Structure formats: C-alpha cells, structure tokens
Amino acid sequence: MEDQIKMVVNIFDTANEMSRQMVETQEYQDLKVAVEELMADEAAVALFRDFQKQQAEAQHKQMQGQQPSEDEIKAIQDMAKKVSAEASIMKLMEQEKRLDQMIQQINQNLTSPIQSLYNDLLKDPE
Questions:
Q1: Cross-referenced InterPro entries, in alphabetical order (predicted)?
Q2: Is 115 within a domain?
Q3: Are 41 and 88 in contact (CB under 8 A)?
C-alpha cells in the first residue's frame, strides 16, 4: 500500500514538473507573447471576449440538444469574419493551436499504455 501511495505521489510530481517545463517551451512562450500583444489592443480584446462568449453560448445550446437559430448562426459567422480580420487574434489562435498540438502529443504518450490494454482486450481471438 505504501508503494502505491509513493507511486501516486511520484506521478503527480512528474506532472508538476511537466507543467513547469511547459512554460519553458517555445510553443508556450509564443502563446504568451501573442496574449501580451492582444492585451495591448483594447478593441481586439473586446472582440475576442465577445467571440469566446458567443462560442460558449452556442456550445451550451448544442449540449442541451438545441440548435442555434438562423440569426444566431449569422451572428456567429459575422463575428468569425471580424475575428479572422484581426491579426492579433489570429496570431493568438495559431499559437494556441501549436501549444494544443504539443499537449495532444503528450496526452497520446501518457495514454498509450491504456490504449494498449484496450487493444489487447478488443483483439479477436484467432
């Protein structure tokens, strides 16, 4: 039992160390710069916040099984056009995507032993 507790502590220590290391990656540093550049433009920040709010509301509706109205879809499309015309927001989104790709790769590495277990379980007996 003590070994199990020690193992849990070690895995969380490793996760904490990965968190510290992540802030040193180029992907994180590039995202940080993009956030700082966006924050320097009040109009772009307001647009970004509106866009995030609109997306969250649409997702919330979809999670409740509701479809957005035509007016809501048009508003989202109009907002997306405005956002895509704002260089600082597009840069932020691109950097966010790069960091997310790195995190997805790490997640694949972390979960590969679990995937292997299920692959073995789901094999057809020959």
A1: Com_YlbF (IPR010368), YheA/YmcA-like_dom_sf (IPR023378)
A2: no
A3: yes
CB neighbour burial string for 77-103, b if at least 16 within 10 angstroms, e if fewer: eebeeebeebebbebbbebeebbeeee
Tokens 């999670």 belong to 63
Best CA proximity match to 43, nearest among 101, 10, 85, 73: 85
Q: How confident is the model over 111-119, as a mean pLDDT?
A: 92
- Cα angle 40, 30, 110 (rounded to 5 degrees) comes to 135
Residues 63 and 56: their CA atoms lie apart, in Å, by: 10
pTM (two decimals): 0.80
The Cα 104–Cα 86 span in angstroms is 27
In a domain, residue 106? The reply is no
Residue range(s) defining the domain that contains residue 73: 2-101
Q: Which ranges constitute the DSSP H helices of 23-86? A: 26-39, 42-63, 70-84
- pLDDT of residue 6 exceeding 80: no
